[in-house]
């Protein structure tokens, strides 16, 4: 099963830690998978998203940045 949710993060980011918890909770609740990608592993990702992290993608489309709203994420995953 391919992950529907991708979290772009970086080490030491407290907002990323918060987002990870929300995403994990919602994905567990709905039986979905998520993957996490460290933006510092790619200079392209770092330059494109470094100021917005954490960034959340649902089904390959940017969904949120900085904060993850659980109700909004649930709604996107139920579509």
Description:
With 79 residues, the protein is of the alpha+beta class. It has one domain: Glutaredoxin (3-Layer(aba) Sandwich). The protein is 42% helix and 24% strand. It has three helices and four strands. A four-stranded mixed sheet has the order 2-1-3-4, with helices on one face. The longest helix is centred in the N-terminal third of the chain and has 17 residues, at 14-30. It is globular, with a radius of gyration of 12 Å.
Summarize the structure.
The protein has helices at about 15-30, 45-50, 70-79; strands spanning about 5-10, 35-40, 55-60, 60-65. With about 80 residues, it is of the alpha+beta class. Strands 2-1-3-4 form a four-stranded mixed beta sheet, with helices on one face.
Head-to-tail CA distance between termini: 17 Å
* Secondary-structure element string: EHEHEEH
Mean pLDDT: 95
State the CATH class. Alpha Beta
Instruction: Determine the structural class based on helices, strands and strand pairing.
Output: alpha+beta
CATH architecture: 3-Layer(aba) Sandwich
For the largest sheet, list the strands in their spatial order. Answer: 2-1-3-4
CATH topology: Glutaredoxin
Low-confidence stretches: none
Total count of helical runs of at least 4 residues = 3
DSSP E strands, number: 4
Q: How is the main sheet built?
A: 4 strands, mixed
The tally of structural domains comes to: 1
The CATH superfamily label reads Glutaredoxin
Helix content estimate: 40-55%
Q: Give me the Rg, rounded.
A: 12 Å
Shape: globular
